[in-house]
Amino acid sequence: MDHSTHHAGHAHDLATDQHHAEPHRHAPKASWPMAAKATLHCLTGCAIGEILGMVVGTALMWGNVATMVLAIALAFVFGYSFTLFAVRRAGLDLRTAIKVALAADTVSIAVMELIDNGIIALVPGAMDAQLSDGLFWSALLGSLAVAFLVTTPVNKWMIGRGRGHAVVHAYH
Fold it and tell me: Membrane-spanning regions, if any (predicted)?
């Protein structure tokens, strides 16, 4: 049996099934555990990028703005990459997978980054703390925890309307 044809057909079927994930069709029932799982998925990618950006920028003694820009950029890269790899494994072509990742994660990552970086900017001394300072790590980890708490209801609302991570569920 020629499996390449089967996989190509499967990828095509998944791509055409994307229309079933549209909000006017059948929006999934959004539960708090589902929203928390989607937020945790997003937080994992964001946290890796955010921490890596803060560590690199701080270690290279970059200014606060450059370090924050790097951290935010890497948070988006890692946040999108988790979804991108998952939907590619499900058989989507790269172009469709990118569209799904953007649709699934953009609002969640943006809210998370706004909250996370806003808190870090507001904590006195956090922006000037070094990697060896407890304030650096407590502000960073604390801000990510608050970002999770704020973003979970946003994701619940979006999933209930067939948006955000609801788009990804069509490919699981």
Answer: 38-62, 68-88, 100-123, 135-154
